[in-house]
Amino acid sequence: MIGLLIGRFQPFHLGHLDAVKFALSSVDELLIGIGSSNKFSEKRNPFSADERKEMIESSLDESTLGKIKIYYIPDVNDHDKWTYHIDEIVPKYDVVFSNDEFTHTLFGKRGIKVISVPLKQREIMSGTDIRVKIRDDQGWSGLVPDGTKKVLLKINAKDRLTNL
Prior knowledge:
Elements: E1 2-7, H1 14-24, E2 29-35, H2 49-59, H3 62-65, E3 68-73, H4 79-89, E4 95-97, H5 101-109, E5 113-115, H6 127-135, H7 146-154, H8 157-163
Parallel strand pairs: 1-2, 1-4, 2-3, 4-5
């Protein structure tokens, strides 16, 4: 069975890592869609799709990497066409993993099964909050996998977030 997990991963954090592991406990292969892939250098979307892909790949072990494929999902600004647009980019999938109510609704309208992902410490595992912590130098590194941390340091995420 093939699953689909879509997220912006701004940045890829431990909650996202748990979502990947949760999804892989139910499927043989996981397609990961990097949402808003056409957005970067913005306050809400500071990291490019390539940077986010690197965060994901550098945070997963070899056996997990063998079970995932990553795709870029640009925004189309048309909710009715969004899921169909995704279908033009990724191969056929059997189930979608998401906690986003809107995603549940849009895929549900098409009769596609959506499974909710258990949220890990959502009060602190939020990309928005982690970006603020990076910008303000407030102990963010324990909230992201080591691979993500290395990428964020390499690209000098603190300066980027400060200047947006």
